[in-house]
Design brief:
The complex is a heterotrimer of chains A (152), B (270) and C (288). Chain B is an alpha+beta fold and 270 residues long. Helices cover 36% and strands 13% of the residues of chain B. In chain B, the strands form three sheets. A three-stranded mixed β-sheet of chain B has the order 3-4-7. A two-stranded antiparallel ribbon of chain B has the order 1-2. Chain B starts with 11 loop residues before the first helix and ends with a helix. Chain C contains ten helices and 14 strands. Chain B binds chain C through residues 140-144, 182, 186, 193-194, 198-199, 201, 203-207, 261-262, 265, and chain C through 40, 105, 188, 190-196, 263-266, 268-269, 272-273, 276-277, 279-280.
Chain lengths: 152, 270, 288
C-alpha cells in the first residue's frame, strides 16, 4: 500500500503493508528518532503526533496514516532553532540516556497545545504513558514547566 | 581525553570535561572526550561499580594536571594564562618536543590492601553515605502503598555537576521505589514469565512522589576535587526506608520485596 | 516484531455500508478499529491470520449525542480521548470519563475506541463495568440490518460475545437517568497509569434518605466476563442502608464472583478488594 502523508511538514508517500507498524515505516524512511522501546504500546518511546495527537507508532498500522499529518521528533525544531521544549530539556537536565526523550518531548508538545499552563499533576498524567528509567521523571517535569514558561 | 569509561547518559563525558578543564585551567568546552574505542583508548576498566567519577575521574584529573605541569616546567606556560596563551603553549611544546601525552595509572591509595587474585581486601578507599526518608500512606481498602514524599541526602565528597548528580539520585531512588513496591519477578519452572513492559511493573510518572535531593560534601583526598562515587548508592536506601515507614504506619515487619499489595494484605492479616 | 505480515490483509472500505458488505462477503473477516489491542496481539505473534476490515471511513460511528428523550448515544468508534474531553457526558454519565481516563495513557486514549474495547471482550477492561451500571444497550449492525442487545447479556463467557459473523458494534445506548443517582468508580491496577486492572468497580445508587431506592453494581477482573452483581443489588434494593445491609450485600457479592490467581494478582486479594470497594461505595458515596 502507498499512503499520502505530511511528514514534518513535507508531503510524502509512505510505502508498506497496510498493517505494517508506522514505527517501522518511519524508521525505514530515515526518521530514526522514533524508538522501539517495547513493541507493545507500553513505554511511549515510539510516540509520534498524528494530526497533532500523541500515538504509539508501534500500534499504528500504516493504513491509519492515510491523509494524516505526522510529526516525529525530527520535526519539532525549526531549521537549526530548537523548540522551547527542547531547550528546556537541555537546560533542566531532562534527558540522561535519551531513549525516552523523543516520546517525552512529543508528549509534552501535545500537552502544551492542550494546556499551555499545566499544573504538575496535569504533566504527570500527560506523560504517564512515557516510561523513563534514568531520571525518575523529576527533571522532565521541570523541563515541561520551564517550556510552558518559555512559551507564554 | 582518552579513557574507556562510556557515556550512557549518566554524564561521564560532562564530568570528565569539567575535571580535566579544572586541572588544565581551561574551559570544559575546550576538552574533547575521545570515543571509547578499545583500539584507541587505554584500559580504564569497565563503566560499573560507582567507580567512574571517583577512580577514573581522579586519573583524568592527574593526567590533565600532568599536561599543565609539563607546559609550565618547559617554560611555555605561566601560572596564570588566557585561552589563547594555553593554545600557543601547546603548539610550541609540540613543535619543540613532538607530541605531548600525559598518562595516569591507578595506584591504590596508601594503606589500601587489595588482593586481585583472591578478591580479598578493601575494594574501595572510601564509601558514599546516605540517609533516606520516606513518607508513605497505605490504602486500607486495597493495601496499596503510596510514597507521598521522599528525601534523599547523600554525602559524596564533592558534587562535580549538581544537575547530573541530582539526576542520578532521582533516577536511582525512582528505581529503588519500583523495586520496593512494584517490580516483582515472577518465575515459573525456571522462566521469568513477566518479562514484558506490560507485566513487569515499573513506576510511571504518576506512581512517584517528588524526590527531594540534598548533598553533603566531606572531600575524599583520593577522588577528583574530593569526589566519591554515587552510581549505585541511591538503589540501596529507598526500600528499607519505605518498609520502615510501612512498619510505622501498620505495625507489620516487611522482610521481602517488592511489597506488593497482595503481600501486605497477607502480612496485615497475620 | 515476530509476525509475518504476508498472513494478513487490512482493507479500508470507503464507507460503513462497504465495511458491512465486506464483512458479509468474507466470512472470518474481522473489524479493525483503533488497533490498540489488535496491534499488540499482532506484535506478540498471536493475531489470527486473515482479513481485517478497517473502519477508518465510518464517521457516523464516531461521536456522542444526547437524544431529546434523554440519555446518551455513543458511536462505537468514539475514542477515549473524545469521551474524556466531552462536555456532553458530564451530567449523569461521569463514570465514563473516569474509566476513559484510567484506560492506558494519553497515546492509547487518542486511538482506542469504546467499541473496540467492548469487542475485545477482556474481562479486565475499564469501561464495561460503567456501561453495566448505566444500563447500556448495544446497537449491532450488519449488512442484514441492525439489532439491539442489553449490554449485560452481551458477554457470554471468556472472550465470547453475542456478536454474529458480519456484525459490528455500532453504537452504545445509555438510557436517561433520573436525578439523584450517586456514582462511584474505582479501578485498582498494578500501578496508577498504563495498568491492567486487578479489580474494577462501578456502582450507582439512588437513595431516599437512608432508604435505597435502586442500585447498580458491576465489576471487572473478578470473573471471565464483566459482572453485574445482581445478588448484591437485590440485598440492597428497598432496604435501609445500615451495617447489616452492607454486610449482606458484601456476602452476596463475594459469593457471585470468581476471581483467579494470575500474573497480576491473586483470587484472595481480588475478593477482599472487591468487598472493600463495595463497602467504600456504600459507606462513602451512598451515605452522602
Amino acid at each position: 500500500m502507498r499512503v499520502a502523508v505530511t511528514l514534518n511538514g513535507r508531503p510524502l508517500w509512505l510505502d508498506g503493508h497496510p498493517m505494517a507498524r508506522l514505527l517501522d515505516v518511519l524508521r525505514a524512511s530515515g526518521m530514526t528518532g522514533t524508538k522501539e522501546g517495547c513493541g507493545e504500546g507500553e513505554c511511549g518511546a515510539c510516540a509520534v503526533l498524528l494530526d497533532g495527537r500523541l500515538v504509539n507508532s508501534c500500534l499504528t498500522p500504516l493504513a491509519h496514516a492515510e491523509g494524516m499529518s505526522i510529526t516525529t521528533i525530527e520535526g519539532v525544531a525549526t531549521e537549526s532553532t530548537l523548540h522551547a521544549i527542547q531547550s528546556a530539556f537541555l537546560e533542566c537536565g531532562g534527558a540522561q540516556c535519551g531513549i525516552c526523550t523523543p516520546g517525552m518531548v512529543l508528549a509534552a508538545y501535545e500537552l502544551l497545545w492542550r494546556h499551555p499552563d499545566p499544573t504538575e499533576d496535569q504533566i504527570r498524567i500527560a506523560l504517564a504513558g512515557n516510561l523513563c528509567r534514568c531520571t525518575g521523571y523529576m527533571r522532565i517535569f521541570a523541563s515541561v514547566l520551564e517550556a510552558a514558561r518559555k512559551l507564554r | 581525553m582518552l579513557a574507556a569509561s562510556t557515556e550512557i547518559g549518566q554524564g561521564t563525558n560532562t564530568i570528565f570535561s569539567q575535571i580535566a578543564a579544572d586541572a588544565l585551567g581551561i574551559d570544559p568546552d575546550d576538552v574533547e572526550i575521545a570515543q571509547p574505542d578499545t583500539s584507541v583508548v587505554p584500559d580504564s576498566g569497565p563503566t560499573v561499580a560507582s567507580r567512574t567519577c571517583m577512580v577514573v575521574g581522579k586519573l583524568v584529573e592527574s593526567a590533565a594536571a600532568g599536561i599543565r605541569h609539563t607546559l609550565v616546567d618547559a617554560g611555555f606556560l605561566t601560572a596564570v594564562f588566557t585561552r589563547a596563551e594555553f593554545q600557543i603553549a601547546c603548539r610550541r611544546y609540540v613543535e619543540t618536543f613532538g607530541s605531548l601525552r600525559s598518562t595516569s595509572q591507578y595506584t591504590p591509595p596508601p594503606g589500601l590492601v587489595w588482593d586481585d587474585d583472591k578478591y580479598l581486601g578493601d575494594a574501595y578507599g572510601t564509601y558514599g553515605w546516605a540517609v533516606y526518608v520516606a513518607e508513605v500512606s497505605v490504602d486500607t481498602a486495597t493495601w496499596e502503598t503510596r510514597v507521598d514524599d521522599f528525601v534523599a541526602l547523600q554525602e559524596v565528597g564533592k558534587v562535580i555537576n549538581p544537575t547530573l548528580a541530582t539526576g542520578q539520585i532521582e533516577g536511582g531512588v525512582a528505581q529503588g521505589i519500583g523495586w520496593a513496591l512494584y517490580e516483582d519477578v515472577v518465575w515459573r519452572e525456571g522462566r521469568m514469565v513477566n518479562s514484558q513492559m506490560t507485566n513487569y511493573i515499573m513506576p510511571t510518572s504518576m506512581d512517584l512522589p517528588g524526590i527531594r535531593v540534598y548533598f553533603e560534601e566531606t572531600p575524599y583526598p583520593y577522588g577528583p576535587a574530593g569526589a566519591k562515587g554515587i552510581g549505585e548508592l541511591p538503589m540501596d536506601g529507598p526500600a528499607p526506608a519505605i518498609f520502615n515507614a510501612v512498619a510505622n504506619a501498620t505495625g507489620v515487619n516487611v522482610t521481602r520485596l517488592p511489597l506488593t499489595p497482595e503481600r501486605l494484605m497477607d502480612l496485615m492479616d497475620a | 516484531m515476530t509476525a509475518s505480515l504476508a498472513n494478513y490483509e487490512l482493507v479500508t472500505p470507503d464507507s460503513l455500508a462497504e465495511v458491512l458488505d465486506d464483512l458479509a462477503a468474507h466470512p472470518g473477516a474481522r473489524p479493525f478499529a483503533g488497533g490498540t489491542d489488535l496491534m499488540v496481539v499482532l506484535e506478540a505473534g498471536h493475531l489470527p491470520a486473515g482479513r481485517y476490515v478497517s473502519m477508518a471511513n465510518c464517521p457516523q460511528l464516531r461521536g456522542m449525542e444526547r437524544p431529546v428523550a434523554g440519555g446518551l448515544v455513543i458511536g462505537a468508534l468514539t475514542t477515549f480521548t473524545e469521551i474524556r474531553e466531552s462536555e456532553a457526558i458530564d451530567a449523569g454519565f461521569g463514570m465514563l470519563k473516569q474509566a476513559a481516563s484510567d484506560t492506558g495513557g494519553v497515546a492509547t486514549q487518542n486511538r482506542g475506541t469504546i467499541g473496540g474495547n467492548i469487542a475485545n471482550a477482556s474481562p479486565a477492561a475499564d469501561t464495561p463495568p460503567v456501561l453495566i451500571a448505566y444500563d447500556a444497550a448495544l446497537e449491532l449492525l450488519s449488512s442484514a440490518g441492525s439489532r439491539r442487545v442489553p449490554y449485560a447479556a452481551f458477554h457470554r463467557g471468556y472472550k465470547e460475545m453475542d456478536l454474529q459473523p458480519g456484525e459490528i458494534v455500532a453504537r452504545i445506548l445509555l438510557p436517561a437517568r433520573g436525578v439523584g443517582w450517586r456514582d462511584h468508580f474505582r479501578k485498582v491496577g498494578t500501578r496508577r497509569a498504563q495498568a491492567i486492572s486487578k479489580v474494577c468497580f462501578a456502582g450507582s445508587i439512588l437513595m431516599d434518605g437512608a432508604r435505597i431506592l435502586d442500585v447498580r453494581i458491576a465489576l471487572g477482573s473478578v470473573a471471565p466476563t464483566v459482572v453485574r452483581a445482581t445478588a448484591a443489588e437485590a440485598a440492597l434494593r428497598g432496604r435501609t442502608l445500615d451495617a447489616q445491609t452492607v454486610a449482606a450485600a458484601i456476602d452476596a457479592l463475594t459469593s457471585a464472583i470468581a476471581p483467579i490467581d494470575d500474573i497480576r494478582s491473586t483470587a484472595r486479594y481480588r475478593t477482599r478488594v472487591a468487598a472493600n470497594l463495595l463497602r467504600e461505595f456504600l459507606t462513602q458515596r451512598a451515605a452522602g
